[in-house]
Amino acid sequence: MRLQQLEAxxxxxxxxxxxxxxxxxxxxxxxxxxSGEEEVYFHLQELTTPHRIIRNMSFLNDAQHRHEIDFxxxxxxxxxxxxxxxxxxxxxxxxxxxxxxxxxADGVIERFPNPIEQINRHMRxxxxxxxxxxxIGAVVxxxxxxxxxxxxxxxxxxxxxYVHSFIEKNLMQYTESILDLDKAYARLISLHSPRKxxxxxxxxxxxxxxxxxxxxxxMHFGRGKFICTRCQLQDKYAHFQALHDFxxxxxxxxxxxxxxQLCDISSRHAAKRLLRFLSIxxxxxxxxxxxxxxxxxxxxxxxxxxxxx
Length: 309
Prior knowledge:
Strand order of the largest sheet: 1-2-3-7-9
Largest sheet: 5 strands, mixed
Structural class: alpha+beta
Number of helices: 8
Strand content: 15-25%
Order of helices and strands: HHEEEEEEHEEEHHEEEHEHHEEEE
């Protein structure tokens, strides 16, 4: 959800917004994190041993402190946690100072929080949930250009291509089946509560128009469809992306007038036809249309332009 919010902000919020640069930086970090997780997930697909994977687990402990774990992999004999870091450069893990030092290719030295402490913290909160179950943690470096220059000898830190071998090594060590995979998975999923960070904007703070998904430029509306003047892409449902962004950034419901302003459409009658796919949430002086969470994945029956449910 956080990634979708940032994508919508960078796509829709004016560059004049005081925090626009911060949002673009956060989006770059979020994309890097997702890319790193995809690298790890690729190697996890090689597993043939029965297992369950939980990705981006987020929950609150008893003290209401949040834990966010990149990967939890459940096996019959143990549970494994991965903290994924997708960064290039030379990486020095300083356990005594509890820091990760990165030296970039241009010589710039940067300090980051120690991911070992993050993993240890996660394992401490999971242990009471699964007493007598081995819980193993590791830091995975997803960027192939990273060089691990130093690390503690007693804590696993390795590149993503070693994930499968690391798991196989532990499967050879822990052989007793003591966990029901489905029950353990269900228990963890029941704790999952994604972080909710309200990022509220007004319609006036957004860029108006419907943008081409290929060229990212404003499309022209005519005869019931949106047309890109650069690549000539024609799309009857290009406004769904605008509605999705509005839902994330402003409100889950929208009026005809707001829709006209958002999509830069002059005709309220044309807007009404475009909004016919949405259910009416409220009638009165202003009619509000409910924007469904699945607006980008709705199936439409082209024969009668109605929602397929």
